[in-house]
Structures are given as C-alpha cells and as structure tokens.
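User: Good morning. I'm curious how FE2/S2 (inorganic) cluster would be positioned relative to this chain. Could you predict the structure with it bound?
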Amino acid sequence: MDTLAFLIDRFDGKDTWCQRYTFAYRPGMTVLACLIHIKEHLDPTLNFTASCRSAICGACAVRVNGNAVLACDTMVDDLLKIWGEGALRISPLGNAKVISDLVVAWEEKIEHLRLAKPGLLAKHEFSAEKGCRQAPKEMQAVAKQWDCILCGSCASECNKLSDSGEDFLEPFVFTHAARYAEDSRSADPMRHVESVLAHGLWKCVHCMECVTKCPKHIRPGEDIAAMRHMAVASGHTDGPGPRHAEAFRTDLEKTGRLNEVRLVPRTEGMASAATKHLPFTLRMFAKGKLGVVEAARLFVADNPPVDNIDDLRKVIAPERN
Ligand code: SF4
Ligand code: SF4
Ligand code: FES
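Assistant: Good morning! Here's the predicted structure, ligand included:
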C-alpha cells in the first residue's frame, strides 16, 4: 500500500470536526508514527500527546474506531487486518474532557486518584532499619496492579462512566486502591477499600470494557470485585450493592437461576421497588416481555432448581467462606 487515510477528530477549543489525512504509509508503522508523520509533514496544528514511545509512560492513549489503544504500541498493519483501508478513525479517549484534538485533561482524574489514598501505611513490625519486606508470593499478589501506567484506556469505554461519572471513579482508581488494600505489608487495608466504597465501589456494571482495553492486562473490574468481597467481609453489608450481591448468590445457591422478579425488591426494598420500578414493569407487561401470571408466580415462589444443582453449589461454596 502506498497511501493510507486517517480520519481524525479535531477540536480547537471551540469547534469540533473530523479531518481526513492521506499520507505515504510504510508497513510496520505504529499509530503514533502515523500521527507524528501527519504533524511533521501535513498539519503542524494537529495536537496529541506522547513521550516514551515504548508503552511505559501512558501518554499516547487514543481511540481507534471507538476502542482505546496505546498509539505507540499499536501497529497499523494489525488495525488494517481488522478494519480495512480507509476506515481508521482516531479520536481522543472517551469519558474525558478534551482540551485539543487528541489531548485530554488529566487534572480531575489525578484528583480522583488521591481518593484511593495511594500510599502504604506499613505494619508496625516494619521499620527503617529492618525494611519492609514481603515474600515473593505476597508481592506477586499485587504485582500486576503495579504495572498501571495511568494511560486512561480503561476509563475510555467504561459503561458506568459513560452513563454518569457523578458517583463513580475511573477504573484505574479502583485498581490503585486494590494494590494497597491487597498488599501484605499494609497496616490498614480497609482504609483504601472504604475510600472507594464511598465513591461507587458497588456501582460498577461489570461490562469488563476496562479489562479488555488495558494494554498492561490489568483487570480493574476484578479489582473492584475483590474489594467488594473485602468490604462485605469487614461488615459493610448495608445498601443496595451488598444486598443485590447476596440476593444474586442466594438465588444461584437455591435454584441455579435468577428470580429477577424478587431480585429487585430484595435489593432495593419493597417500597422502592414498587414505586421506582412500577412504570418499567408495566411497560414490560404491555410489550409482552413479562406475563402477569408468570410475574405473580415468580413473586411467590422460586424457579425449580436446574439439573445438577449440587455441582453448582460446590462451585459457589468456597466463595461463601
Ligand atoms: S467493569 Fe466496571 S469499571 Fe470496568 S469498564 Fe465496566 S463498569 Fe467500568
Ligand atoms: S489500569 Fe490499564 S488501562 Fe487503566 S490506566 Fe492503568 S494501564 Fe491504563
Ligand atoms: S508514548 Fe509512552 S506509552 Fe505511548
């Protein structure tokens, strides 16, 4: 291929537009190499950020066709195999305030990071003289979270953030909380869990976009689940989040199937379920998604258990302990 076209989302602080750039393409170029080529040879006004070019500074994350990637670590040849020629659209990260073209603001995200109390209070047995050592296995338990390069890719397609960031934090903030909460040297692990508990720990919708987008293979969605376990185990069992998890698990243990008609009142309480969700329920009846008789049956009785329910219970049982 001699030429390649990029569509790039532009923003000059006032107007937004999509600009097409066609340029000489050499196989083996990264997305970042193409952006640099465009800036140096076609349009010096194009703005983006990058530093290390080695996938370690996290500065170059952008979206390609709606998917967050590190520009310096993404080969255009690979993208062309997926998307084809003439179809690559480069945009700034999602769920972020755009400053200019592909450049997004980080101040607010860094402030959110502070909420996780990112700093280790070491156990009393440690001292400056003796050091603060941990066994290799203990270190491995949090090693993955320490790989975070703060690129923001996990937040870009987070469905909870897209819905509302008012009561939620970027997925990497939860990962940073988990790396201190799960560190064997920590004198007060719950300090980090309780910090994020107050900022949406139970609001994650488990879409796992953060897991699929992280270039370092970190799994923020699983860090969130682990901290929920810690919160419940330490007595934070009140509220719709813990009640929903408990109702969910009780259904699986009893029958292997969710009883969604009873899940809502058990999560939110009968009064809230009746008032808040009544219009939605009536719409489901009207559209034939739920029958009145079936709803009444599920309200008074559980589903019959699935075949081999005991096998499922054996899988769930260790999680109870
Ligand atoms: S799993 Fe949770 S934190 Fe991760 S992207 Fe989905 S909603 Fe966001
Ligand atoms: S968790 Fe992964 S995707 Fe999120 S900021 Fe850290 S390195 Fe980037
Ligand atoms: S330029 Fe540093 S991660 Fe891409």
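The chain has a mean pLDDT of 93. Residues 58, 148-154, 171-172, 175, 213-214, 216, 218, 220 surround iron/sulfur cluster (ligand 2) (CB under 6 Å).
Let me know if you'd like a different ligand tried.
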